[in-house]
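Long-time lurker. I teach an intro course on protein structure, and each term I like to show students one example going from raw sequence to a predicted 3D structure in token notation. This year I'd like something fresh instead of my usual example. Would anyone be willing to generate the tokens for the chain below so I can use it in lecture? Attribution to the forum is fine with me.
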Amino acid sequence: TPHQLIPAKTRAALSHIHHLAPPSHAFISALPRQSTMSTLTQTDLNILTILTNLQSQLKEQFIPIKRVRGHFKLQTGKEWHEEQNVTLTQYLTSRQEIYAFQRAGQAGEHCMALTEPFLVAHPEYIVKDIDGMPSETDLKVKREALERQNAQKEKEAKERLAQRKRIEQHEREEAKRREEQMRRDREAHERDEKQRLLKLSIQEQQKIEEQKKQIEKSKPQWKDSEERRELVQEDAPKKKHVDALVKHVSPANDSSTKTGTSIATANITSFDSIEDLVQKLTSKTTSKAESARAFFVWVTSNITYDMKGEFRATSPVDILKNRATHSTGYCALFQRMCDIAGISCVTLYGFVRGTAQYLDASTLGHSWNAVRIDDDSWQLVDCVFGAGYVSNTSNGEFVHDTNEYFFFPDPKQFIYSHLPQKDKWQLLEKPITKDEFDANVLITVPGFEAHFTPVSHTKRDIPLSNDNLCQIDFRARKDVHFLIKLQYEDTEEKIEHRTMLLRPTPELVQAHLILPQSGKRYLVKIMCREGSMDGTYLLAAKYVVDVAMNASISLEASGFPTEVLREHHTKCGVEFDSHKYRRIGLEGSNILRMRFKTNGEASLFATVAPVDNDGTLGPKLAQNLTFSQFEDVQKKLIQVNALFPHAGEYEVGIFCKHDSEKGNQYHGGITYRVVVDEAPFAEVTSFPTPLISFVDLNCFVEQPLENPLHLNKTYTVRIRVQHADQEAEKMAFVVNGLWNNFEKVEGTNAGSTWQCELELKDKVEHKCYVKVSNDANFKCILKWNVV
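-- Reply from a regular --
Happy to contribute to a lecture. Here you go:
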């Protein structure tokens, strides 16, 4: 029956409505008196259906409802909303909560049933003359209790907040106090260090000489040939840092303080025990960093890596006796020496890559150390890598070559070759995963020494999906030179003229690549060398470039005009402004105009030579087939023009010279291949002849640039004088003693521009003269021939 669908709580609320029957008939009895079960209207049935559907949303509270002319008036809070054209069904289904319920009785009579929680929370409702509902006095008492409870909770929350603020303020003050104390301690330490260095500076050289004399005197007493051989090697160039502590503690950290001592640590070979050795090594050190470096120098200089597996003992005593061990033994000996000296040291295990034996794959089984130095920071040390390397000979012998890069290396660079098993020993703010380690660009030991740091590509694999052009940027030491080797990955066939190295700044290097085919993988080997550019280069880093099958191949980008800008190019600041690629095609013209940027302290010129059908280079053509001039006052933009006498293929060489260099010795290294088609050429066989004053006054010919000029024709000649200090006052052509003056063009920005309408009536040489300020004489700057 319908009344059985009404929830019990609803029936209890409706039991107080006027003219109610027993609770089991609550809903039906709440209908108007003339209504019976058989005369229920559709609206009444809608109410029953809605209350049943919303049973899960009821929370002991209902919406007040008032019947008005066949519709319902609903009350929510204090406001009344009249819905003239909306049925109760439509209204209720749009609500999410029901707070109270009211049913219309006789005309003018209204009943309301509100639950006690609703009345307590809403004091705006005043209930009177309703049986079973709480009185206003009871509600007031409960409301006051609720207010006191809320006030108590708010008070406790404020007290907790105040207590937390006091604790935070105390922690900030304590941290500030500790920081201030550390600052005062550092300043005191720096003052003491400066005073100590000042006292030792005078005696230092004397101590070095005395130590050398002691070494020389002790040579006859040594009977072991191995010890004598190692002593002789200490003076070799490759040991230049081994027996000197007067340097930065870490070559990679320029902020480290110098030790200020000089100890021949590698030469200490006479000792009674490991404790005696540690005491001798630390007798003149003044910090944990100095002591740790003394141990590193001694271990890497005196302990050989056991390639044959003859000495597998890891006891420090056995290692000192055998003078040979493997990676674990190096770490055990170094850690034992640190323990004796009171330096915290741990041995780390993990993956390594970038060595000669593990160039392309990471291998688990290597070990290295971490030490805690004076400022409580942890630093990394790898005595194995620092001791030397395995030769490329068939025997694979270990070569002693102490490498101090592996003493306190930068963790951001060290992570490219060493991955510890525990992430915290990466010493990075954001540790990397094993997959990220394997995907990183491969950097070798020479690369670490050159401080090779990737900028544009930190991963080894570089995918190219759109085209065949790639640029790799990295940073390195400014005294290290680089070149690029490009090969196919499957055949390792070398690819020529497809790489170019630029150096926008001394420490930033840009490697430009042109990959010849799509759907191929290429090896990019970045080679490095210290000192001069000429000599043997070592592998610094390696990338793999993968060109997609559908990548577009640029026909224009067939190669670069140079593989690397050499020292003289860098000194002149040469940059490519107009023609970046090596191959140039000319259609309908036999004149090539190129532009180069410089640092304003250089001059450029070009040469032209034909290329035979078999690819051999012919003799250089006449010099009047090229013409160079500056385009700006600062001399930072140079226009280089080349003229080709007939169709065919030519090689154009670009040469530069710095203003500080004396003589006429220019440096080459930049070459282009120009292909001239069969189109008819203009009647131009050469350029006008510039004289020395043309260069000195920084002149620029706007027109005409061709030579010779033709008789009985009129030419508009425009020449710009761009000298920074001397301004042009007059300019004229002199022909057979007659002067044809130029007129100055107003409104030009760079320098002063002069123009002349020249009518050629005589078949003689036409010379252009200019007079500048502070000079009473005219100077000849250009000559044209007339035919």
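Some talking points for your students: The chain has a mean pLDDT of 75. DSSP finds 17 helices and 37 strands in the chain.
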